[in-house]
Amino acid sequence: MARARWLFGSLRNLSSLRFWRKLVIRLLILAIVLPVILTVLYSVVPPISTLMIGRYAQLLWVDRQWRPLEDISPHLVRSVITSEDSGFCTHGGVEWEALQKQVDVLLNEGESPRGASTLTMQTAKNLFLWGDRSYVRKALEIPLAVLLDAVLTKRRIMEIYLNVAEWGEGIFGAEAAAQAWYGVPAKDLSREQAARLATALPNPLGRNPAKPSSGHRKLAATNLSRVNGAGPIFGCVLDK
Fold first, then answer.
1. 172 Cβ partners below 8 Å, 6+ apart?
2. What stretches pass through the bilayer (predicted)?
């Protein structure tokens, strides 16, 4: 009798182990396949960010008004590329050399790596990952950015980014930001307004584009100067 109970318990444990193993495998497959399916879907369907989903789940206010790229000021496109990722049109989603330098800093100096995050990686983070900084999140950004770059055009990546980027508490996307901070549609943003919005992106909750601090104004002025001297780095997104 005792042997039968032992045998039954062993079979039950084995069955339970198989169940959890199958569950883990299925979840891993889902984690791999779902971003691919969503990326293909996002080539035609306006997506929302994980941060927006989190706010919706908490019943918090969200202002996002999707606009096609042609209805967003080219000044903002230029300022964002210049400020965030000047190699956007030439890399395949990841700036490998810059990333290697940051890894070397981490390994040799023990400092937390900064920078090396392309617009495509930021878009991947906004669409699929969480906001808190971590090495795990950064590692996941890389294959997701490569996926986005392989499936979507540069114009579509930029269009998605400018429609999901956070520009204040509950303010997402260029149209909502332009309306909230300047009372104008995104297509009518001036060069200075675009520069202030672009340089607010690294700290959207701490920088006010409508009433910038002296430091923020200097960043925006530097951005304007860099845009003027940037050369042909916007061709994959803008016609001229």
1. 49, 51, 52, 62, 63, 64, 163, 164, 165, 166
2. 23-45
Phi, psi of 3 (to 5 degrees): -65, -40
In tens, the pLDDT along 27-78 reads 778 778 899 999 999 999 999 999 999 999 999 999 999 999 999 999 999 9
**Structural domains in the chain?**
43-228 (1.10.3810.10)
Residue holding tokens 């990952």?
A: 129
* DSSP secondary structure of 158-180: HHHHHHH-B-STTEESHHHHHHH
Cα separation of 126 and 131, whole Å? 8
Q: What's the whole-model pTM score?
A: 0.88
CA distance 53 to 60: 10
Choose among 117, 77, 108: nearest CA to 197: 77
Q: Which helix (H) or strand (E) holds 102?
A: helix 96-109
Side chain identity at 182, as an amino acid letter? Y
